[in-house]
Amino acid sequence: MTYTIGEFAEKTGLSTHTLRYYEKEGLLYSINRKSNGLREFSDKDLSLLNIILCLKATGMSIGNIKQYVNMCKEGKETEKARKEIFVIQKQHIEEEINKLNSYLETVDYKIWYYENLAKLGNEEDPQNCEKMRNIYDSQNNK
């Protein structure tokens, strides 16, 4: 299936400006042109764009994404290097997930703290925070 730039923008949620930028930067490199010069996007372009957006959303720079796309253009001999890019990116994502889980744990604790402060805590007590944390940890098997 083929798409005009407007259809492709609607399908992907990106602006036509962003799609033109990605093409200009060489990220979308196999876009056909009709005889009148209009871009004609394909499902193959959509697959590549989904990978680009995944890498971008997981913190990879446009420059590094460009490097990956250039390897794709080179073909089979770069498959091992391309796999390594994803191995490294997976490690980066896992580190980010661990950080976010730690932040989530802190937020969960503070929600619990404020929900239980009146019945379990005493803000006048200098040991209040420590006592509340111990109660929370014991209730959550930590």
List keywords for this structure.
142 residues, Multidrug-efflux Transporter Regulator, Chain: A, Domain 2, three-stranded antiparallel β-sheet, 6 helices, elongated
Set out the fold topology.
Blueprint lengths: L1 E2 L1 H8 L3 H9 L7 E2 L5 E4 H15 L4 H13 L4 H42 L7 H12 L3
Antiparallel strand pairs: 1-3, 2-3
What can you tell me about this protein's structure?
There is one protein chain. This protein has helices at residues 5-12, 16-24, 43-57, 62-74, 79-120, 128-139; strands at residues 2-3, 32-33, 39-42. It is mainly α and 142 residues long. It has a 3-stranded antiparallel β-sheet with strand order 1-3-2. A hairpin with a 5-residue loop joins strand 2 (32-33) and strand 3 (39-42). The mean pLDDT is 94.
